[in-house]
Design a protein that fits this description.
Length: 544
Amino acid sequence: MAGLPSPGASYGVTPAPELKLPPPSVSRDPRRPIPEDLLRDASRRLGIMALVGAALWVLGVTFGHISSWLLEPAGSTTIGWNAIDIIAATAVVVSLALFAFTRRPDLDPRLILNLGLAYLVFTALDLGLMVHWFPPPHGALDPMLSWTGVVVLMFAAIVPTPPRKMLAAGLVAASMNPLGMVVAAARGIWDFGPWTAAVTDSLLMHYPDFLLVGVAVVIARVVTGLGQQVSKAREMGSYQLGELLGRGGMGEVYKATHRMLARPAAIKLIRPDSLGGPDGEGADVAVKRFRREAEAAASLRSPHTVELYDFGVTDDRTMYFVMELLDGTDLETLVRDHGPVPARRVIHIMRQVCASLEEAHVAGMVHRDIKPANIHIGRLGLEYDFVKVLDFGLVKPVAGKVHELSLATAAGLTPGTPAYMAPEMALGEAVDGRADIYALGCVAYYLLTGKIVFEGDTSLQVIVKHLQNDPVPPSQRANVDIPPALEQLVLACLSKKREDRPSSAGELSRALGRLGLQPWTEEEARRCWNGAKQGAQGAQGARG
């Protein structure tokens, strides 16, 4: 998993002095590959087309038999089961096999699409044999537009195929009808005279299909051109965008690769239209805010803050962060999939989050949106349960009020998340690092119980409860053992008055360390991750 549950993470390296992208000198390559996610979508469409094809083969043969029984005279060779049924059954089996093949997530979509070309030719062969297996009425040899031409056009429109490949595969597919006629002639169904006449007459009869191959090549050029335009639009400086990882109110997060270093990364794009439009004074102000907030995020160096590789602004004023690509999951997904977390593991996670927050708070920044979805846990090198705090790209100065302008407020987004929002943030008062302490207490509560502190039908109801209600102790809401000292510390983080909370993330971390519980070990973390991985593989096998 990429580790970017919400589009909006930033990290710590020294920022480049200029935000303008270098000229896209590589963007004029006509052989630019189509993005990976578009190819995977195309392979899934190919699978659906194969499944529909299997259904059409069954329906076509069934209705063909019904019409023969109703319309043909008794004793006709087309009545009853015959070779056409064998041809159709073969086509159904191959179609279903291709559909199953396209469902496998571990296969290169390029391989699947190349198999799709072979499937196109195979389908055309079956159609050619079936159409010409029996003699036509009155021995007609008039030019005709067959199902083969229609299938070639459908393939070109649905599956992105390079024009040259489409031309080659289309010509071979269109030749299957003449081949079917030659096979029929060899069986004595057609009487062309010399074999040269058989080839000539069969080609003349099906020349409309060959004309449609030319149309299919044009369609293929358009479809692949659109994919290449997407690829060009996704080029961000030295990075090439790939699969879409997530989407939020301000933009998207994509998997990316550095073109020179081949280093995987994740890029968060902030759309200019989400900030009031791509043009005018508003966009200029948004770019200035972006520079300020990106530089603030880039100054953070804690290993528990997701690393920022680069940031910039494209010519169309799309702003982007380039971030490390993480291996693991977020805490929200962890609890949703596996239930409450053991107390010792919660302490291990919280202390790592505190290390990230302490650096930010000392630097004069408040995260303002600490929540399970913004805390990533996974593997880093040989270490398991390594925590990274996400979404440091939209931090605020310590003395700032929530209504002051930032990229988030410019986009019309409410800072923070109601289920994890400190009372002073809900009231629009000045915030400091203790607002993050409150949110981290909400996160610890969620990890221990699997439930948020306050629930409500609307966000407003949740906010009101954060302002007025005392939280129910975690031990009263969970069917697990929670050490009393840890529970008291979590409740202290949830104090309505900020002065009653731990004064800093560092103090909270030290208090967690003084609880006297045996530390969560690397071996325990490894067993959790290996067990979760085996469970996921077992579930996948059961679904298969």
